[in-house]
Amino acid sequence: MVMEKIVIADDEQAIVELISAKLRAMGYEITAANTGREAVEKTHLVNPDLVLLDILMPDIDGYEVCRQLKSDPKTKNIPIIFLSGKLMERDVIKGLELGAQDYILKPFSPRELAVRVRRVLDMKDKTKKSVPAPALSHLEQKIDALSALHNVSTAMVGIRDIDELLQYILEQSLDVANAKIGSVMLLDEQNNLRISNSNGLSRQISNQIRIKLSEGISGSVAETGKPLLITNIEENNRFKRRSRQKYETKSLICVPIRMRDRVIGVLNVNNKKSGDVFNQEDLEILTLLANQAGVAIDNAELYKTMNESLVDYKVLEEATSRIIHSHSWKELLETLLNQAVVTTDAGLGLLFLADEETGELYLEAMTGKPTKNLGGLKYKMGEQTIGTAAKDKKSVIINHWNGEQDPLREKVRNVIGQPLAINGDVFGYFTVCDKTKDTDFSEKDLSSLGALSGELLGVLNINRVSSKPTDIKQQTRSKEVTDQETPSASYSTVAHELKTPLTSIHGFSELLIEQLGDITNKSQKHYLDLINSESARLSDLIQDLLDLTKLEANQAKLDRRPTQLEKIVDQVTSLLSTSLADFNVSVQIPDDLLPAIIDSNMVTQILINLLTNAITYAHPGDEIEIKVSEKRDQFLISVRNSGIGLAPEEQEKIFEKFYRVDNEINRQTPGTGLGLSIVKRLVDLQGGRIWVESDTGRDTKFTFSLPKHLVQGNSNMTGACL
Length: 722
Prior knowledge:
Elements: E1 5-9, H1 13-25, E2 29-33, H2 36-46, E3 50-54, H3 62-71, E4 80-84, H4 89-97, E5 102-105, H5 110-130, H6 133-158, H7 162-177, E6 179-187, E7 192-199, H8 203-208, E8 210-212, H9 216-224, E9 228-230, H10 241-246, E10 252-259, E11 262-272, H11 280-324, H12 329-344, E12 346-355, E13 360-368, E14 378-380, H13 384-391, E15 396-398, E16 415-422, E17 425-435, H14 443-461, H15 478-516, H16 522-552, E18 561-563, H17 565-575, H18 577-580, E19 584-588, E20 596-598, H19 600-616, E21 623-631, E22 634-641, H20 648-653, H21 664-668, H22 675-685, E23 690-694, E24 700-707
Parallel strand pairs: 1-2, 1-3, 3-4, 4-5, 19-21
Antiparallel strand pairs: 6-7, 6-11, 7-8, 9-10, 10-11, 12-13, 12-17, 13-14, 15-16, 16-17, 18-20, 21-22, 22-24, 23-24
Helix pairs in contact: 1-5, 1-15, 2-3, 6-7, 6-11, 7-11, 11-12, 11-14, 12-14, 15-16, 16-22, 17-19, 19-22
């Protein structure tokens, strides 16, 4: 019988030895790797049946290793199980989305690991045995195609940049068609096809290619809107010889990209890596991906337009507020120029004021990139572009400045300008110059500049600016941000370093218990059991301390989103289903409950802690009730259990750190005394409160509230939570 091969990738040698000892005893052939790159190399070298992969490694992390293995046709079908000390739901989801088959949390039991390994390998064996090789290959191709479509659909939600999105769609197309070369070509303003994204082509070639409608294969597909599959280029006279000389092509698929029934480009793939020719199935899936590309471009452009409008509105709103509250002329002009540069994406902002005595425009304020010899810049009213536009009270937009000699023209590439006038009298001229990324200014930029000019004029009209200059107070939070981020990173590092030896202690003790079998020496068995249970308890304590320290240091930030509370209750009860099986569990949730604006991860953690607490202090067969309700401007969530109850003096201390009620259950049940303290801080952070109702020897009910609407002071708190 051929031994099944497993690659173990972990930078902690003790963990590698622990897993190796267990799996070798079960008859597996083990290959170890201590870095991410080594894991990739050894996976290609030994072609294992399974990879056990740690996430935190010194060079490239486990996620990147998984991404590389799953993107390579030779290794993409090798199952992967992640090993990690990270408990966050998003980390688990990220691993599974990358293609991993399972996720094991450290510290783990060798027996649990063995069961998970066998289950994954059995699933792989069943797939191979139940499907004939040709059918399996065809099935895998179908799965890859569906996976590509799913990936693109997911990317369309998360990726808003058109170029990035098209590159992703192109890569998915190359993967599913197993092609060497590919490109996305879009029609420009002159109706010529230009390469916007490519794989397998040099940038020089990509920049050179321009194809007219009806010219060559791509031009023909763009003109007719009909896809083409060509198995042998030599037999097709529509392929231009000049293109063939630049990249050898034997087999080709070209499909149109449509946006709202209009062809806007084409998707090309050339040459299968296997040397085979493309087939009808390749054409069908690439047509679907090209359709997705069209929808993606449409969505991205709509999003871009909407987002630009929103940004402009916010910038204008902020500018209005700052301008209105400016206390000096200098502060007012600086505010106006800074906002103008940001809004129009310009490199330089200039504001000229008119001198009535000399009839000149002189430079009063400047912001943006440093430009030499502009300090004394002046224009005669009615002369040159700026002076003439100011006198005529006209705006200008110049993207290709040529002809006249102008001191500003020698310094900048393009410019837009807006006159400043009160009651018909021009008192200045407002300009921004040098659009970033070598692009042109647009009418939209000019409109934004006009809106900001209007805000300035409005303030001047109602005399909101004081004649006395005031000190401009500047505050920076850079040090605070650094001080906040550093402890958070340190806590995570310390927790990881503590969990690694604990995993070894816990795992080796369990391995000893298993391998020694029936230990006759009761003292030895007692000590091994004690090491095993206490190492597990210490791991829980470390995690609780880490969570609590983050909360007390204000490191836990809210990520509030509309969430159905019913969904959270379902997730938590499913997670604890094994522990809840011995109890009579009831759940009460109104059918018409509106979504709550909450941090779902935090509320999930609160409910897990409260339910775990209820399970601990209830007896098998007792009732555990979970109830969600509404009361005016808040949601109420309660967890009630029948059991030993709490005395009044205990209720006052129950949320204190390390406090544990002195009773028989607690003396027999290990715990940290931090669970409810963490719960209270999580509830407080969301603007709610928590309380307990109980009598000695009777039911105990914990209830916490969550506000229905965002609290004004916390509405901008976003980011990752615990």
